Amino acid sequence: MKTKAAVAVAPNRPLEIHEVELSGPKAGEVLVEIMATGVCHTDAYTLEGKDSEGIFPSILGHEGAGIVREIGPGVTSVKVGDHVIPLYTPECRECKTCLSQKSNLCTSIRATQGQGLMPDGTSRFSLGGDQLYHYMGCSTFSNFTVMPEIAVAKIREDAPFDKVCYIGCGVTTGVGAVIWTAGVEPGSNVVVFGLGGIGLNVIQGAKLVGANKIIGVDINPAKAEMAERFGMTHFINPKDVGNDKVVAAIIDATDGGADYSFDCTGNTDVMRQALECCHRGWGESVIIGVAEAGREISTRPFQLVTGRVWKGSAFGGARGRTDVPKIVDWYMDGKINIDDLITHTMPLDDINTAFDLMHAGDSIRSVVLY
Ligand code: NAD
Ligand code: AHE
Ligand code: ZN
Questions:
Q1: What's the CA gap between 51 and 44, in Å, rounded?
Q2: How far apart are alpha carbons 242 and 215 in whole angstroms?
Q3: 361: buried, middle or exposed (CB in 10 Å: 19+, 13-18, 0-12)?
Q4: What are φ and ψ of residue 155, in 5° steps?
Q5: What is the DSSP string of 235-255?
Q6: Angle 264-353-132 (CA atoms, 0-180°, nearest 5)?
Q7: In contact, 64 and 165? CB cutoff 8 Å
């Protein structure tokens, strides 16, 4: 079939809108009509050539919601007409990792996914006879896409696509990192570095679990107002206090340091601050931000010897097929706020505007409506 898609032709070039060829689902795969997709900073990072797994030409996008339109042979867990959220972290329930129950990082199709291919090692997308690569196993910047059935979460049919698409990455990543990765307890002091589409969801997760102080850190003061609305109690702008005084300011404000901190910037210097502002003996810092290829983190080992813990989180530690439908319920029950974080919507033809808004710091989430 033909489908309209935004094609990433090369690094640092605007996405190009094309009618691309999409071949149908093979065994264990489903054809999904994407109804809406968010634009995450990770899409921009890959488009900028910062992703060591970035491949071109490809169809980016990994934060979508849609409807199953066709199923391949052997598919049993979803049927035509089901509403689904694509999962860049699948849940096969059979691999060593899924069975361990210790991690959400299902390994069953990770190798081919990182090569921009479907599990059989081929692509379903092409343009003018030339192969296009998939992205994060999702490619939601295409109106129709093909997904393995283990990489879609079936969701309730009354959930609006234009809002719950954000659960496909940002909401789950932020809220999940608080609940599943960190296990933040009520009364904890929490610090969030980077108050964008992920950081604000960390803030609402921290508020949801009953955190005490929720300190937000961002170099863009315009982000503070929305963060306060979502539960931030104190704001620090490194440009005001001095970048070298941020850690001390947090330690002062928390009587010795944060119980939990989260990096939502992808900046490795900020990651160090996020670790070092943690409380001696027990403070835990969770890296969510994705750093440019080649970057490394560093700190004095004494920081860890004296009890601080450094860990990371992918997709909030969520097991997609199990947890994503629950997060949709939380939204539908009014427990989490998605609507106010979606600051812009646009048709696919205007998708490059979403990247411009992100880079200017003028949006939280832009959502493309098909
Ligand atoms: P965003 O652009 O919406 O927000 C980033 C925020 O960080 C902005 O408000 C910006 O002003 C702020 N910032 C930038 N540099 C800063 C600095 N030096 N100090 C303080 N604040 C600073 O991006 P997003 O969509 O929220 O994504 C945030 C990060 O999380 C990205 O690196 C993205 O790739 C990553 N991410 C990771 C996962 C995961 O599963 N681990 C999932 C989604 C996104
Ligand atoms: N491909 C990059 C790493 C990118 C990365 O860390 N991605 C996150 C999700 S970001 C969503 O917006 C993730 O889930 N990582 C786990 C995984 O298996 O990819 C690189 O460095 O090669
Ligand atoms: Zn994302």
A1: 10
A2: 16
A3: middle
A4: -125, 165
A5: EE-HHHH-GGGHHHHHHHHTT
A6: 85
A7: yes
Measured CA to CA, the distance from residue 201 to residue 186 in angstroms comes to 17
Q: Is 319 a catalytic residue?
A: no
Q: Which two tokens stand for residue 261?
A: 């901190």
Range 2-168+338-369 has CATH code 3.100.10.20: no
Which of 18, 62, 83, 134 does the annotation list as catalytic? 62
Which amino acid belongs to residue 337? N
Token representation of residue 312 = 């990371």
Q: Is 295 a catalytic residue?
A: no
Length of the chain: 370
Q: What mean pLDDT do residues 285-302 have?
A: 98
In this structure, are residues 215 and 253 in contact, taking their beta carbons and an 8 Å threshold?
yes
Q: Domain 171-315 classified CATH 3.40.50.720?
A: yes
Q: Tell me how far apart the alpha carbons of residues 242 and 273 are, in angstroms, rounded to a whole number.
A: 13
Tokens 């999409």 belong to which residue?
A: 22
Q: The dihedral of CA 175, 181, 183, 188: what is its sign? A: negative
DSSP string, 185-241: PTT--EEEE--STTHHHHHHHHHHTT-S-EEEE-S-GGGHHHHHHTT--EEE-HHHH
Which pLDDT score, from 0 to 100, does residue 14 have?
A: 98
Tokens describing residue 26? 């093979």
Spatial separation of the C-alpha atoms in residues 38 and 359, rounded to whole Å: 15
What are the residue ranges of CATH 3.40.50.720 in the chain? 171-315
Q: Residue with structure tokens 């004296």?
A: 306
This prediction has a pTM of 0.98
Residue with tokens 């696919």: 348
Which ligand 1 atom sits nearest the alpha carbon of residue 365? 3
**Ligand 1 pocket test: which of 39, 40, 324 has the largest number of ligand atoms within 8 Å of its C-beta?**
40
Residue range(s) in the chain whose domain bears CATH number 3.90.180.10: 2-168+338-369
Reported as a single tens digit per residue, the pLDDT across 156-212 is 999 999 999 999 999 999 999 999 999 999 999 999 999 999 999 999 999 999 999
Q: How far is the CA of 198 from the centre of ligand 1 (A)?
A: 6
